[in-house]
Amino acid sequence: MRGDIYTFKILRYDSSEPEKEPFFQSYNIRVIPGLTILMTLLRIRDELDGTLAFRSSCRSAVCGSCGMVINGKIDLACRTQASSFNSQTIVLEPLPNMNVIKDLVVDMTPFWNMYEKVKPYLIRYSPDPDKEIPQTEEERKRIDQNVNCILCASCYGACPVLSRDPDYIGPAALAKLERFVLDSRDERPKAFLEAVNNDKGVWGCDTVLRCIEACPKDVRPTDSIVGLRKALVKNRLKRIFGKEKDEN
Question: What secondary structure does DSSP assign to the chain, as a single string?
Fold first, then answer.
Protein backbone atom coordinates (compact mmCIF):
# COMPACT_ATOMS: atom_id res chain seq x y z
CA MET A 1 0.00 0.00 0.00
CA ARG A 2 1.25 3.47 -0.84
CA GLY A 3 1.85 6.05 1.85
CA ASP A 4 4.00 6.52 4.93
CA ILE A 5 3.33 5.73 8.55
CA TYR A 6 2.49 8.91 10.49
CA THR A 7 2.29 9.36 14.24
CA PHE A 8 -0.68 11.36 15.46
CA LYS A 9 -0.30 12.73 18.98
CA ILE A 10 -3.76 13.74 20.19
CA LEU A 11 -4.49 15.57 23.42
CA ARG A 12 -6.96 13.46 25.41
CA TYR A 13 -9.16 14.72 28.22
CA ASP A 14 -12.63 13.92 29.49
CA SER A 15 -14.33 16.61 31.58
CA SER A 16 -16.60 13.96 33.10
CA GLU A 17 -13.47 12.55 34.75
CA PRO A 18 -11.79 15.73 36.06
CA GLU A 19 -9.52 13.76 38.36
CA LYS A 20 -7.61 12.54 35.31
CA GLU A 21 -5.02 14.94 33.90
CA PRO A 22 -4.91 15.70 30.15
CA PHE A 23 -2.39 13.59 28.27
CA PHE A 24 -1.18 12.99 24.74
CA GLN A 25 -1.98 9.65 23.16
CA SER A 26 -0.13 8.50 20.06
CA TYR A 27 -1.58 6.60 17.11
CA ASN A 28 0.40 5.25 14.20
CA ILE A 29 -1.47 5.12 10.91
CA ARG A 30 -0.57 4.92 7.24
CA VAL A 31 -1.27 8.15 5.39
CA ILE A 32 -1.85 7.92 1.65
CA PRO A 33 -1.60 11.03 -0.57
CA GLY A 34 -4.71 13.17 -0.42
CA LEU A 35 -5.79 12.06 3.05
CA THR A 36 -6.95 14.97 5.20
CA ILE A 37 -6.52 15.28 8.94
CA LEU A 38 -10.24 14.70 9.35
CA MET A 39 -10.19 11.51 7.28
CA THR A 40 -7.29 10.31 9.37
CA LEU A 41 -9.20 11.03 12.57
CA LEU A 42 -12.18 9.08 11.24
CA ARG A 43 -9.91 6.13 10.51
CA ILE A 44 -8.34 6.30 13.97
CA ARG A 45 -11.78 6.35 15.58
CA ASP A 46 -13.16 3.56 13.39
CA GLU A 47 -10.12 1.29 13.33
CA LEU A 48 -8.01 2.02 16.42
CA ASP A 49 -9.90 3.82 19.19
CA GLY A 50 -13.66 4.27 19.26
CA THR A 51 -13.44 6.49 22.35
CA LEU A 52 -11.77 9.37 20.48
CA ALA A 53 -14.05 12.45 20.36
CA PHE A 54 -14.04 15.20 17.74
CA ARG A 55 -16.59 17.17 15.73
CA SER A 56 -17.20 16.97 11.98
CA SER A 57 -20.05 17.30 9.55
CA CYS A 58 -19.73 18.58 5.97
CA ARG A 59 -16.10 17.56 5.27
CA SER A 60 -16.01 20.48 2.81
CA ALA A 61 -14.88 23.49 4.89
CA VAL A 62 -18.43 24.83 5.01
CA CYS A 63 -19.81 23.94 8.44
CA GLY A 64 -16.77 24.89 10.53
CA SER A 65 -17.24 21.99 12.94
CA CYS A 66 -13.72 20.55 12.77
CA GLY A 67 -11.65 23.53 13.88
CA MET A 68 -8.66 22.50 15.99
CA VAL A 69 -4.98 23.17 16.55
CA ILE A 70 -2.86 21.21 14.07
CA ASN A 71 0.88 21.29 14.75
CA GLY A 72 0.47 24.57 16.60
CA LYS A 73 -1.71 26.25 13.96
CA ILE A 74 -5.48 26.67 14.10
CA ASP A 75 -7.18 25.27 11.00
CA LEU A 76 -10.02 23.06 9.80
CA ALA A 77 -9.16 19.36 9.85
CA CYS A 78 -11.24 18.70 6.74
CA ARG A 79 -9.21 20.99 4.52
CA THR A 80 -5.73 20.20 5.86
CA GLN A 81 -3.74 17.53 4.05
CA ALA A 82 -1.84 15.26 6.41
CA SER A 83 1.02 15.01 3.93
CA SER A 84 1.41 18.81 3.78
CA PHE A 85 3.65 18.79 6.86
CA ASN A 86 7.39 18.20 6.73
CA SER A 87 7.23 16.06 9.85
CA GLN A 88 5.52 12.70 10.02
CA THR A 89 4.47 13.48 13.57
CA ILE A 90 1.27 15.53 13.76
CA VAL A 91 0.05 16.98 17.05
CA LEU A 92 -3.67 17.71 17.44
CA GLU A 93 -5.16 19.84 20.21
CA PRO A 94 -8.58 21.43 20.86
CA LEU A 95 -9.32 25.09 20.14
CA PRO A 96 -8.01 27.43 22.87
CA ASN A 97 -10.08 29.89 24.93
CA MET A 98 -12.88 27.37 25.49
CA ASN A 99 -13.34 24.57 28.01
CA VAL A 100 -12.73 21.06 26.74
CA ILE A 101 -15.69 18.69 26.90
CA LYS A 102 -13.78 15.69 25.63
CA ASP A 103 -10.59 15.35 23.59
CA LEU A 104 -10.93 17.70 20.58
CA VAL A 105 -14.50 18.78 21.41
CA VAL A 106 -14.80 22.15 23.16
CA ASP A 107 -17.73 23.90 24.79
CA MET A 108 -18.67 26.70 22.38
CA THR A 109 -21.34 28.19 24.64
CA PRO A 110 -19.29 31.37 25.40
CA PHE A 111 -18.71 31.86 21.67
CA TRP A 112 -22.43 31.62 20.89
CA ASN A 113 -23.37 33.85 23.83
CA MET A 114 -21.12 36.62 22.52
CA TYR A 115 -22.39 36.09 18.99
CA GLU A 116 -25.98 36.46 20.17
CA LYS A 117 -25.21 39.82 21.80
CA VAL A 118 -24.72 41.60 18.47
CA LYS A 119 -28.15 40.46 17.18
CA PRO A 120 -26.71 38.78 14.06
CA TYR A 121 -29.71 39.24 11.82
CA LEU A 122 -31.41 41.98 9.82
CA ILE A 123 -33.22 44.50 11.99
CA ARG A 124 -35.91 46.45 10.19
CA TYR A 125 -38.59 48.92 11.25
CA SER A 126 -40.08 49.62 7.85
CA PRO A 127 -43.18 47.66 6.77
CA ASP A 128 -42.38 44.35 5.15
CA PRO A 129 -42.14 44.78 1.36
CA ASP A 130 -44.22 42.72 -1.05
CA LYS A 131 -41.03 41.45 -2.69
CA GLU A 132 -37.37 41.09 -1.76
CA ILE A 133 -35.34 44.16 -0.86
CA PRO A 134 -32.99 44.84 -3.80
CA GLN A 135 -29.29 45.52 -3.39
CA THR A 136 -26.87 46.98 -5.88
CA GLU A 137 -23.61 45.21 -6.68
CA GLU A 138 -21.72 47.84 -4.72
CA GLU A 139 -23.95 47.41 -1.69
CA ARG A 140 -23.43 43.67 -1.82
CA LYS A 141 -19.65 44.01 -2.09
CA ARG A 142 -19.58 45.92 1.19
CA ILE A 143 -20.64 42.81 3.09
CA ASP A 144 -19.18 40.05 0.91
CA GLN A 145 -16.11 39.38 3.03
CA ASN A 146 -17.94 39.01 6.33
CA VAL A 147 -20.71 36.93 4.78
CA ASN A 148 -18.05 34.24 4.23
CA CYS A 149 -17.78 33.59 7.98
CA ILE A 150 -18.72 29.97 8.79
CA LEU A 151 -18.72 30.44 12.60
CA CYS A 152 -15.96 27.89 13.16
CA ALA A 153 -14.62 29.89 16.17
CA SER A 154 -11.06 29.69 14.86
CA CYS A 155 -10.62 33.43 15.36
CA TYR A 156 -12.12 33.14 18.85
CA GLY A 157 -9.59 30.46 19.72
CA ALA A 158 -6.70 32.49 18.31
CA CYS A 159 -7.60 35.76 20.05
CA PRO A 160 -5.04 36.74 22.74
CA VAL A 161 -7.52 39.10 24.39
CA LEU A 162 -9.91 36.25 25.20
CA SER A 163 -7.08 34.32 26.82
CA ARG A 164 -6.92 37.01 29.52
CA ASP A 165 -10.47 38.42 29.42
CA PRO A 166 -13.29 35.90 28.84
CA ASP A 167 -15.81 38.77 28.85
CA TYR A 168 -14.39 40.22 25.63
CA ILE A 169 -17.01 39.84 22.90
CA GLY A 170 -14.54 38.38 20.42
CA PRO A 171 -13.59 38.89 16.77
CA ALA A 172 -16.30 36.75 15.16
CA ALA A 173 -19.16 38.62 16.83
CA LEU A 174 -17.67 42.01 15.97
CA ALA A 175 -17.08 41.01 12.35
CA LYS A 176 -20.69 39.84 12.15
CA LEU A 177 -21.89 43.11 13.68
CA GLU A 178 -20.11 45.11 10.99
CA ARG A 179 -21.62 42.81 8.37
CA PHE A 180 -25.11 43.98 9.39
CA VAL A 181 -24.13 47.58 10.07
CA LEU A 182 -22.90 47.78 6.46
CA ASP A 183 -25.91 45.95 5.04
CA SER A 184 -28.08 48.40 3.10
CA ARG A 185 -31.20 46.51 4.21
CA ASP A 186 -30.52 46.78 7.94
CA GLU A 187 -32.16 49.59 9.92
CA ARG A 188 -30.66 49.23 13.39
CA PRO A 189 -30.05 52.68 14.92
CA LYS A 190 -26.56 54.13 15.11
CA ALA A 191 -26.86 54.04 18.89
CA PHE A 192 -26.80 50.24 18.68
CA LEU A 193 -23.01 50.44 18.37
CA GLU A 194 -22.78 51.90 21.87
CA ALA A 195 -23.17 48.37 23.23
CA VAL A 196 -19.65 47.58 21.97
CA ASN A 197 -18.16 51.03 22.66
CA ASN A 198 -16.01 49.78 25.56
CA ASP A 199 -13.00 47.64 26.41
CA LYS A 200 -15.13 44.49 26.23
CA GLY A 201 -16.01 45.45 22.69
CA VAL A 202 -14.16 47.22 19.88
CA TRP A 203 -11.62 48.96 22.15
CA GLY A 204 -10.45 45.72 23.74
CA CYS A 205 -8.81 44.39 20.57
CA ASP A 206 -5.00 44.26 20.56
CA THR A 207 -4.95 44.45 16.73
CA VAL A 208 -2.25 41.78 16.47
CA LEU A 209 -4.11 40.13 13.53
CA ARG A 210 -4.12 36.58 14.88
CA CYS A 211 -7.81 36.27 14.04
CA ILE A 212 -7.02 37.07 10.40
CA GLU A 213 -4.26 34.47 10.32
CA ALA A 214 -6.55 31.81 11.81
CA CYS A 215 -9.60 32.38 9.59
CA PRO A 216 -10.00 29.58 7.01
CA LYS A 217 -12.29 31.76 4.86
CA ASP A 218 -10.10 34.87 4.62
CA VAL A 219 -12.44 36.99 6.72
CA ARG A 220 -10.57 39.87 8.34
CA PRO A 221 -12.17 40.51 11.76
CA THR A 222 -9.53 43.08 12.74
CA ASP A 223 -10.53 45.21 9.76
CA SER A 224 -14.15 45.03 10.93
CA ILE A 225 -13.19 46.08 14.44
CA VAL A 226 -11.27 49.07 13.08
CA GLY A 227 -14.26 49.89 10.88
CA LEU A 228 -16.59 49.86 13.88
CA ARG A 229 -14.19 52.09 15.81
CA LYS A 230 -14.23 54.58 12.96
CA ALA A 231 -18.02 54.48 12.84
CA LEU A 232 -18.25 55.18 16.58
CA VAL A 233 -15.83 58.11 16.34
CA LYS A 234 -17.69 59.47 13.33
CA ASN A 235 -21.02 59.24 15.15
CA ARG A 236 -19.51 60.98 18.16
CA LEU A 237 -18.10 63.84 16.08
CA LYS A 238 -21.46 64.30 14.36
CA ARG A 239 -23.17 64.62 17.73
CA ILE A 240 -20.58 67.11 19.00
CA PHE A 241 -20.49 69.35 15.95
CA GLY A 242 -24.22 69.03 15.41
CA LYS A 243 -24.80 70.25 18.96
CA GLU A 244 -22.36 73.15 18.49
CA LYS A 245 -24.15 74.15 15.29
CA ASP A 246 -27.53 74.14 17.06
CA GLU A 247 -26.13 76.29 19.90
CA ASN A 248 -24.76 78.85 17.44
Answer: --SEEEEEEEEE-BTT-TTSPPEEEEEEEEE-TT-BHHHHHHHIIIII-TT-----S-SSSSS-TTEEEETTEEEEGGG-BGGGSSSSEEEEE--TTS-EEETTEE--HHHHHHHHHT--S----SPPPSS-----HHHHHHHHHHHT-----HHHHH-HHHHH-TTS--HHHHHHHHHHHS-TT----GGGGGGG-STTTGGG-----HHHHH-TT---HHHHHHHHHHHHHHHHHHHHHHHHHHH-
